[in-house]
Amino acid sequence: MNIKKLYSTLLIILLCVFKTNAQEVLTIEDAMKIALENNFEIKIAKNNSTISETNVTVGNAGMLPTATASVTDNNSVTNSSQTRQDGTSTSLNNAKNNSLNYGVSLGWTIFDGLKMFARLDQLKELQKLGDSELKRIILVKIGQVNSAYYDLVQQQQQLAALDTTIVISKQRLELAQNRFTIGKASKLEVLNAQVDLNSDQVALLRQKESYANSKILLNQYLARDPKIHFKVTDEVNVDNKLVLADLMDLAQKQNPALESQIISKRIAELQLKQVKADRYPTLRLTSGYNFAESQSSLGFTSETSSRGFNYGFNASMNIFDGFNQHRNEKVAKLQIENSKIAVEQQTSILNTQLSTAFQTYLTNLELIDLEENNEAIAKQNLEITLDKFRIGTITTIDFRTAQLNYVNAKVRYSNAQYEAKLSEIALKELAGNINF
């Protein structure tokens, strides 16, 4: 087999791979769309966000009146006796007594120290907190989908590299057998070539296993059947134009963790307002319409009934409660102080994470260039070595070394692209800026 035949074989393999990929290619955009629609944790977070939104009502804040309807019906059968002051007495067995009461009552708190307004504002902030948590979950899950997707891309590239090395190893075995047949090589050379080919095939099987398991994991993130078969694209496109200062500015505005701490601080401030409202009087209007009817088999009155409208108000004010009001306000102020510290802490953590992740990102970008150059050199070295091996001017050890150097260079280049992509994803996740 000459070099031209080798290239033809490699071309056929590449065409077969392309044909297989063309059958069903899952793009990263499609993967993110499926995750947004299907992922279980995102669904739960969406429902929790909807719950927070549903709770934002003036009624839940206590601003609206309440109306209650009630019905009470009591009946009894008793043996009764009565003795009057004049000494006369009367008795009745199986005396029936019944009473019926029903009506509607209305109550409306019209002043509570402005607690209800603070409560409404707090419900709105809780809604924002739910939205922020939803955003955090989406960013985390989309980040996982991106990582799992590009892991498959790099593994797919490594499969192609292993396919290439197996083709080369088969050619080497064929050349060794031909040389042995004509007496130019020993049986040992043939056996070494066979052992190396077997090792390459084992490595390919292991890589196929890892690739299949990674596809199952991605299907899990997409909440799909783990048996769904798909291919991914062949390239890892890394955004090499990220700027640390821009990322930090975005993170201050969009990072969900920092956003949640800021909202929590606002909620603590509104909680203090509600606690302070207990220092003021509470005024409540009341009214209602009631009907009452009773019947008695024994007594001066055998039947009574009443109906009518009632109205009024009640006012109350806390004068002394064992210093609990002072204690509650002090605790609420400490909660605000804690929330301020939490915001400062989260800001510091965020800046540290961005700085370290950006340094890793820059390093990985440099590694991409280095490994790309190494792959080109290793490929050129393999081509020269293959020509020399075909004419018998180098040893099998030198040939195998060049072959492994080429495969390792391709794997390192693929890994460098993947690591750089992971750094990009991490930076954009911290900045709250993953596009989906």
From TrEMBL:
Q: Name one GO cellular component term.
A: efflux pump complex
The signal peptide annotation in the UniProt record is 1-22
GO MF annotation terms: efflux transmembrane transporter activity; porin activity
Say if the entry is tagged with keyword Metal-binding. Answer: no
Known InterPro entries for this protein? OMP_efflux (IPR003423), TolC-like (IPR051906)
**Alphabetically ordered keywords of this record:** Cell outer membrane, Membrane, Signal, Transmembrane, Transmembrane beta strand, Transport
Compositional bias (Low complexity): 69-83
Looking at the record, which segments are called Disordered? 69-92
Family annotation (Pfam families)? OEP
Task: Indicate whether Transmembrane appears among the record's keywords.
Answer: yes
List locations, semicolon-separated.
Cell outer membrane
Member of which family?
A: Belongs to the outer membrane factor (OMF) (TC 1.B.17) family.
Q: What is the recorded name of this protein? A: Outer membrane efflux protein
